Amino acid sequence: MSAIDDLTGELAKLPGIGRKTAVRLTYHLLKQSPDQSRRLAEALRTLSDKVRPCSRCYNLTEEELCVICRDPRRDPAMICVVEEAPDIGSIERAGEFRGQYHVLGGRLSPLDGVTPDDLTIPQLVQRVATSGIREVILATNPSLEGEATALYVQRQLATFPVSVTRIARGLPVGGDLEYADGVTIAQALSARRSM
Fold it and tell me: Are 44 and 50 in contact, with CB atoms under 8 Å apart?
């Protein structure tokens, strides 16, 4: 196998990168100066050497604790549970949540071989058992796997004196009923509130 095939194969393993895009990226990199290719290789090496999961919430960080866990202004008694570290950025952009997080590292998916043992659910249960948590907000994706994960986590926390809530789902702001699917409309109706 050639170096071109090796790199193309590795790039094609990345999410959202198909074989054609991997080939284009490989040839683009070949057109760059050797220094630029070395900087990219060094950035990848540094990334894998320095970035690791936060010892408390499993967000990605270069420190023992991530910037959110180190922030004394955050409410440590409120935890928002997300599937993956990039989900934190989505919630943070809204600017409304002032608690801490817990990253599961995925979602339950028996067909893909992802079981509770593959996620950080036991660590979450341990946090709730020992850290005075008063609310756990489940912010898994509204997919079948995300819903199953949320239900499983809720059941694991049922014996603790903690409020377990789920983020609301429904129609987006600016959405149009005409284009919404039935499940989204049903969720929006069941999560309605007084005006």
Answer: no
* 42 falls within a domain: yes
How many Å apart are CA 83 and CA 194, to the nearest integer? Answer: 31
Q: How many domains does the chain have?
A: 2
Query: Could you tell me the CATH number of the domain that includes residue 121?
Result: 3.40.1360.10
118, 95 contact by CB (below 8 A): no
- pLDDT tier at 99, thresholds 50, 70, 90: very high
* Spatial separation of the C-alpha atoms in residues 14 and 79, rounded to whole Å: 30
Count CB-CB contacts under 10 A for residue 118.
Answer: 15
Residue 146: inside a domain, yes or no?
Answer: yes
Q: In this structure, what CATH number is given to the domain that contains residue 40?
A: 1.10.8.420
Residue range 44-75, pLDDT digits in tens? 999 999 999 999 999 999 999 999 999 999 99
C-alpha closest to that of 148 among 100, 184, 114, 193: 114
Nearest alpha-carbon partner for 97 in 106, 86, 88, 105: 88
Structure tokens at 178: 């005409």
- My answer on whether 43 and 83 are in the same domain is no
Position 174 scores a pLDDT of: 72
Domain encompassing residue 32:
3-50
- C-alpha triplet 73, 75, 77: angle, nearest 5°: 155
